[in-house]
Amino acid sequence: MRENGLTERSMILAAGATIVLGCLWRLVCKWNERTRRKITTKIPDNEMDQFKGQPRLPKFSVPKRYDVRLKPDLSACTFAGSVSIDLDIVADTKFIVLNAADLSVKSDSVCFTSSKVFEPVNVELVEADEILVLEFADTLPIGVGVLAIDFEGVLNDKMKGFYRSTYEHQGEKKNMAVTQFEPADARRCFPCWDEPACKAKFKITLDVPSELVALSNMPVIEENVDGPLKTVSYQETPIMSTYLVAIVVGLFDYVEDHTSDGIKVRVYCQVGKANQGNFALHVAVKTLELYKEYFAVQYPLPKLDMIAVPDFAAGAMENYGLVTYRETALLFDDKHSAAANKQRVATVVAHELAHQWFGNLVTMEWWTHLWLNEGFATWVSYLAADSLFPEWKIWTQFLDETTEGLRLDGLEESHPIEVEINHASEIDEIFDAISYRKGASVIRMLQSYLGAECFQKSLASYIKKYAYSNAKTEDLWAALEEGSGEPVKNLMNSWTRQKGYPVVSVRLQDQKLEFEQSQFLSSGSHGDGQWIVPITLCCGSYDVNKSFLLQTKSETLDAKESKLVEIKSAWVKLNVHQTGFYRVKYDDDLAARLRYAIEKKILTEADRFGILDDSFALCMARHQSLTSLLTLMGAYREELEYTVLSNLINISYKVTRIAADATPELLDCINQFFINLFQYSAERLGWDPKQGESHLDSMLRGEVLTALAVFGHDLTLNEASRRFHAFIDDRNTLLLPPDIRKAAYVAVMQRVSTSNRSGYESLLRVYRETDLSQEKTRILGSLASCPDPNIVLEVLNFVLSSEVRSQDAVFGLAVSKEGRETAWTWLQDKWDYISKTWGSGFLITRFISAVVSPFASFEKAKEVEEFFAGRTKPSMARTLKQSIERININAKWVQSIQNEKQLAETVKELAHRKY
User: Fold this and answer.
1) With a threshold of 0.85, does the pTM exceed it?
2) Which strands, in side-by-side order, build the sheet including 545-550?
3) Active-site positions?
């Protein structure tokens, strides 16, 4: 041992010194850590204001378990409650800060018990920030304790928090109690840490009238009746976020089934409507089984209840084990529901059940990642519907989702998929087409790029890894990157972290295809975004194809080297089957070849849809003339496929609206052109359903006949009137099946006027007599299509009446072009009432966008801006800006159309062309 200069004795002494020094060092480190923790988390005793105006709750306490007891009074529309929260104090503090809103907290009931009982010296409910701040005299001990709070609240009529909904039972009006907590309204029912990352277990107990049904997330474990009241206790939930807690109390019927592995599934609805739940029940059972396989994880709860709620702001809500729905999204009546209603029930049920894994089991860390929940559930709902109903061609219909995403994201006032949320008041506005539809579309684009099998396996591993916890967007990219070996994060960040999307321009020059990407904006302005774009193309045949990533502003592809041998004369289609979230602009020669391919029925439905949709968007952005768009639309004269024709109809509505402002003298000719265009399909479909016809033909018939009615086709208006009067005389007549009722109602309203009100009065009578929500919304969506502004005003006032449920009022805002000004004046006159009634939820934004967006003059944009200058709230600010931007886009489009030299000649030629 001499070689290192140490004797055995000196080595022993050195070792001992090392041990002593090590112990001292650990003591110093511990002291430093405690000191550092105190410095960073110690809050001055008198500074409660530090917690105000913050986007998130402080992190010095973590909830582990809630024991919630509620006693709703359905007559007085109030509730009393208590909550005991197992709380882990993780840093030195004299404060506990949690969320509470619209509650009356009993200060003397509040205490925190750990090593001893701590009573607060100060209890402050900060309504502006929806927080409850509890200040204690002493620093709370690190570790677990129990926070107890008693409180009272009101069963509100705002369709959020713990609220009341009304229904009729045996002719008597009754109240039910319902919860809707997403995004941040559990705090309106009980004090809690109302953030998605603050997951905990929940033990729910309810004291309710003994004759009522009381439901929550988990099965009942005990029910004790004591005279007129009963106490219902439920199994403890798995760990979950507050926004997924659910309670419903009322009178209900149900239908029941089981999955193959024994999960009990029920559909609850109003008494007497149980048979309307059978279709949703069938879809739910099959979908749970499908998702178990797809996600490679069992459904996590012992039961699944789904319930139809008469007053419900959203379409549905994915509460763990107790999914709540609007009646229109859950119930299906074989006799009076249309094929479109059936499809909506299927896709909404599939969407909500996808959340049981993607959202509930694995939850976004914060609302910035909302798209993870909603975009994914939207995409996978189509996967489920396609598996259950392949004849619906649902992936072609998915293009409607993509179009809505592209439409909103083409605005300068759009937002990235991942959007920073700094306050709870900002969350409502991002439940929009970006989070849902763009989110779903980029997921589909990525799945198409990686391949279905690789995507599914990577997804299953992601769910397994983050089960019962929270995840961020980058966690999903990491799982997909690991499973595929592809640079997913790099590819996808360009789609989720910046707003907008590209238009890829392509032209053929000397046997070479030249590509260039630029940000597409509907305003025609130039954006500076750049993306990694998965380009797919085919040339002359779907067998001759090519894929590559466009990672720069421009790129050139040599046709010879790429074996695109027919490039000189063949059609070239980019974004094959429309799986990419971008638009394509072709040079004139390539566009003409595609028009020929459409006429010859060479292209798939998805590609016919995409060419038309891109052309319309380019026309609106003034990159293409209305003349060329109308010429292209003429190529679809023999179109019979539902999704393509439905989009053609929607575009025709928008063209006539803009033409009414730009070239009113050509409007009759444009209407005649569209009548000619849609008569081909109308004649083949007829008015009456055919034996064994497809689901898609059933949906298409109604849309085509509605279009002919709107464009003033006399034969359609006459036949609709005949069938409508037969229906008024006999509601069971076969002359007006559900699929064509909307068409008949719109047709009837085209001839209603102040001096001829009978059709309007008859429709109101049907509205008042039916108890089917789908029928009521069909009628509401038809009434304001009347061209008489006086009738439009009556309709708008009617939708604010007690006869129309709050969530349905927005259906009545589908106003004819003749009623636009009337609607705007009405909105201003009624704004205080509308703001008071709908201002606390997302439905207020629908009033603004529906009434404001159709205008097309710079003066109107200024007028709207001035009116709302002092009336804007954070929850509607983005929608207002988007609506004003749309007016300006329309105004520029009007100017562009007025300068088109060939338009009048083309329109007249198209109007007189016989198909």
Assistant:
1) yes
2) 545-550, 533-539, 572-574
3) 352
